[in-house]
C-alpha cells in the first residue's frame, strides 16, 4: 500500500492527489516485474523513489511521473542483477555530486551515439533540485534534450546493476562494489559556470564517452 503520509514535503492535497497515481504505478510495475520481486518490494521502491525526489526536486510538477520512472529503473536494475533480464550490452553508470550537469550530460551523450548498443544511467551523491540551465542549453545545441531529465540519487540497486562506474571528480564519495570497473574523470562541477565553460565540458565529455565506448562497447576487441 503506497502511503504518502510519510513523504516529508508533500502537502495533504498533494498526498491525496498522488496516492492513486502512485498506487496505479506500483500495480503496473508489479505486473512487469512480478517474476523478480514481490508486491511489497515494488510498493517500497515506488514510495522511496517518490520521497527521495520530493525531498530534493526544485520543480514538483511531474513528481509522480518522475518517481515512477525512477522506480522502473531501479526495478529493472534488480532484475538485471538477479539474471531475470538478460542484458548483453555494456552497462555504464555516471556519478557526480548533484546529478544536475556532468553525469546527465555524459549519459545522454552515450545514448546519442550508441543508443541500443550501450546502457547508460546517471546518479548523484547528493542530488540537486534541478538540471543546471547551462547544461540544458549546451546539450540543446548538439540536439540532445534534457528537458525531462531530473536529478536522481545513487541507489544501491542501480549501482549493483552497473558494470562500469564512471565517477566525475567524486571517487572518494562512492563506495566500491566487487566486480565492477571504476574510473574517475577529473571534470569539475558545472555549478555557477558560464555557458562557454559548460560547452567545453560538454565537448570533453563527448570525446571521453566515445573513447570509452570504443574500448568497452560491443564492437571492442576482447
From TrEMBL:
It comes from Citricoccus nitrophenolicus. Gene3D superfamilies: 3.40.50.2300, Corynebacterium glutamicum thioredoxin-dependent arsenate reductase, N-terminal domain. Residues 90-215 form the Phosphotyrosine protein phosphatase I domain. It holds the Pfam family Phosphatase-like_N. SMART domains: LMWPc. This is Low molecular weight phosphatase family protein. Keywords: Arsenical resistance.
Amino acid at each position: 500500500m503506497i502511503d504518502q503520509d510519510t513523504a516529508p514535503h508533500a502537502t495533504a492535497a498533494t498526498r491525496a492527489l498522488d496516492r492513486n497515481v502512485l498506487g496505479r504505478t506500483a500495480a503496473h510495475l508489479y505486473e512487469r516485474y512480478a517474476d523478480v520481486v514481490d508486491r511489497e518490494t515494488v510498493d517500497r521502491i515506488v514510495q522511496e523513489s517518490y520521497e527521495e525526489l520530493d525531498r530534493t526536486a526544485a520543480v514538483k510538477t511531474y513528481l509522480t511521473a518522475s518517481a515512477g520512472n525512477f522506480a522502473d529503473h531501479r526495478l529493472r536494475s534488480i532484475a538485471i542483477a538477479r539474471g531475470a533480464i538478460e542484458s548483453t550490452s555494456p552497462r555504464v553508470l555516471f556519478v557526480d555530486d548533484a546529478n544536475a550537469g556532468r553525469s546527465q550530460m555524459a549519459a545522454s551523450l552515450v545514448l546519442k551515439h550508441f543508443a541500443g548498443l550501450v546502457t547508460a544511467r546517471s546518479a548523484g551523491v547528493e542530488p540537486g533540485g534541478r538540471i543546471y540551465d547551462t547544461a540544458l542549453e549546451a546539450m540543446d545545441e548538439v540536439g540532445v534534450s534534457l528537458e525531462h531529465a531530473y536529478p536522481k540519487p545513487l541507489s544501491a540497486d542501480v549501482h549493483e546493476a552497473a558494470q562500469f562506474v564512471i565517477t566525475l571528480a567524486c571517487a572518494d564519495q562512492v563506495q566500491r562494489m566487487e566486480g565492477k570497473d571504476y574510473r574517475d574523470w577529473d571534470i569539475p562541477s558545472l555549478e555557477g559556470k558560464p555557458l562557454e565553460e559548460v560547452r567545453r565540458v560538454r565537448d570533453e565529455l563527448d570525446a571521453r564517452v566515445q573513447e570509452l565506448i570504443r574500448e568497452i562497447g560491443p564492437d571492442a576487441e576482447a
